[in-house]
Amino acid sequence: MFTGSWVALVTPMNDDGQVDYVALQQLVELHIAAGTDGIVSVGTTGESATLPFDEHINVVKRTVAFANGCIPVMAGSGANATAEAIFLSRQLESTGVVGFLSVVPYYNKPQQRGMIEHFTAIANATSLPTMLYNVPGRTSVDMLPETVAELAKHEKIIGLKDATGDIQRLLDTLPLVPDDFVILSGDDDTSLEFLTNGGHGVISVTANIVPKEMAQLCREAAEGNIVDATAINDRIKQLHTDLFLEPNPVMPKWALYKMGKIPTPVLRLPMVQPELVSQKQIEATLAALELVN
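Structure tokens predicted for 4-hydroxy-tetrahydrodipicolinate synthase:
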């Protein structure tokens, strides 16, 4: 279930900064039609850092309702306080999600043993599977392969989103974990290489913009059709770069807005609109892909 192309879905907002549930439903339906394998609701790209608990929970609930059983939904439920992560996971447990994506605690920079105890406590407190999320560029700490291997022994810790962008890290981790432990790329730019070196899929920002292409890329790679997968990746690889010209999700929201997929590119402060040079760059890439006029 947790393999293939999972979109790290944006949370669309109205001009007043409130969640735009009409646009959210349209995005979910877009991914169902495009063949996206799954949705991650209210992860980093969904602005989890600035949605209070009640809103966070409601966005996940509505995403599941809009999916209507046609596509699985995983909920972002990470926090830098273990008690908060447990509380949020428990609140989301009955929403219909298939599991949780839980980030390495940020800012407080826990030791490796602290990470083990943190994720073990979360897994023990809920009935659904948990996927670990290692993104040292945002958390300032790096979960090492040996730590992942220790956590992979827990029956409810079923996978890892690896956003290091380091293929060697994947190669170091794979021999240490069970065969059914899922490792997904969290870095679009290196996702094809990740897939061809034993990775099982991607939690993708790029899939917000070209969901059909990312889903097909993952399928071709899984079937060993590397030439076809490479051709798809070569066509969209500039997006992998341009979507991170400014901190995520600034650029994907701008791109979706220019494509007419969301009515506004509004973000929650302290995130603000992209600089003009970034706007022009991604608009040129979208035009080259014939995604805008």
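The domain at 4-223 is CATH 3.20.20.70 (TIM Barrel).
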